[in-house]
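Troubleshooting: if your tokenizer reports a length mismatch, compare your output against this known-good record of 312 residues.
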Amino acid sequence: MKFLPLFLLCGAVVSASAADKKIILIAGSPSHGHLEHEHRAGALLFQKCLASVPGVSVTVVSNNWPTDEKVFEGADAVVVFCTGGGGHLLTKGNRLQTMDGVLKNGVGFGTMHYGVEIPEGKGGAEFLRWQGGYFLTNWSVNPHWDANFTNLPNHEITRGVKPFKIRDEWYYHMKFVDGMKGVTPILSAIPPDGTRGRPGANSTHGGNPEVQKHKGEAEHVVWAYERPDGGRGFGFTGAHEHRNWANENFRKVALNAILWIAKVPVPANGVECAVTQEDIMANLDPKGQKPKAAAVAPKAEPFISPVLPEKK
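Known-good structure output:
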């Protein structure tokens, strides 16, 4: 297996190895503060972790849309980690149409954190088709809270993952396809009632009547989707906090999901990847912000409940 050098240039395409399954990770331009929304550093960490998986080639497109769309040729999966909403990189020009063409014939698609949010009239319908759900303004909410994942489905994406608790900006109350047909919740937890926003508040990201109806109920923050065309998708709403990638369970869910949408068999214990402090602090965007305290691995909660029957 031959490995190519990593060229870490703005807009550069970073390739790992030539292999059977081709995964494209699109990292959006710099956003937020130090150790927040670290799109490029996160994507390069995924690339490093997936390098040990046989038969997989991972290409990272840094700092927004690729300058040469030929990078999508032969792709088996595309994952987007970027600024969302009206600034989502897929809302520009004819990129939605381009991606629609890329995803034909069962190519997988997934989004990370803010990348799950896209305007209803410019990408909402596509996200429902591609990944089964998305963050819809005036419907979904985006609070920071401690999510306690106590029950996990027995799915390829949860292989090797133990129930855990971690604080992040976990978006929830997604807009899913009707009846959640084809959707499998992967990480679900009961958010504090206060995270739903002030009742009656005129906020695009909280307080709406629909989200208020479900106080005390579990909300899905990571999900898998099996498309009618045979393709697969996922949404992972956490990852505001870059340091959370130091948590093995948090990280493993994302890495397993990337393999799953590419139709690469997930190892029995999930993607094994040792991540150091240096790995977390590598490749951060130069944002000119005062650094936060050093990143440390958030502790995982002990295994406290059995997994549910496996969904094939």
